[in-house]
Amino acid sequence: MRKTLVVLLAMLFLAAAAWAQTYTPNADPLLGPHNYKNNGCTSCHSPHGVTMEGSNGYLWALAIPAKSYTTYDNQSMNTTSLLTPDPLTGSNTPNNTAQIHTAMCLSCHDTAFSGMALSNPNNAVIDSSNTLLHNHPVDVQYPSPGTDPTFWVVNIVSGQAQFLDATDAVYPYGHPARLFVYNNAAYVECGSCHNPHAYQTTVVMQSGALVAVNTAHFVRGEYDTTAAQSNFCASCHADKAGPWDGQGDQ
């Protein structure tokens, strides 16, 4: 009887110790702060009861803000028409615009909408005035092929945006930025620069080969916080890349 009591007490102690473990923000090397309170994938996604249906819905579990935002250079972005109610079920089905890849981020990062206290306040991308003025442009069209020599040439192939320098022969650091296509045009969204599932390490194509590189802040390309950070920016901005000759030649 005494032995059984000792075993039970030991089990209770271990259970209490496990219960007392606290959530450590950013400890997950893959999801980082997106592993919110150790909820893993369900921090953002749900296998059941999603807020958006269909293949463009990404099993999204969070509410999408429906409002108008002021973006870089006093442009505007309106998410009110992003979700289209299904006439039969009344459920929301996202349209196929590129904007969904910004709106999903705003489910949390619009802290005026979500009410969340982010682990890094600098990651709250708006304030109560619904402004994105102080952030890189989002929901903007990437220059059409050859129209702006300060950007790399991008072709639309089978609904996908592909950098002309596909083998990275000209710019060996690669073109990891992702552009989202709508109506045969490429757009820059939050997801263009950030991969929400790769917090500290990402895989990029460099000189024709896949390479694992260090990153930070979910940046899609190599992003070394201890060194120059321009390589990723130059994957879109050709005029920041060394091989660029000022004439748009690649």
Describe this structure in words.
The structure is a single chain. This protein has 250 residues and is an alpha+beta fold. The chain has 2 domains: 32-123, no CATH class; 142-240, no CATH class. The protein is 17% helix and 17% strand. The protein has 5 helices and 11 strands, in the order αββββααβββββαββα. The strands form 5 sheets. Strands 5-9-8 form a 3-stranded antiparallel β-sheet. The chain has a two-stranded antiparallel sheet with strand order 1-2. A two-stranded antiparallel ribbon has the order 3-4. β10 and β11 (209-214) form a beta hairpin. The longest helix is centred in the first third of the chain and has 19 residues, at 2-20. The chain is globular. The termini are far apart. Mean pLDDT is 79; it is low at 1-23 and 243-250.
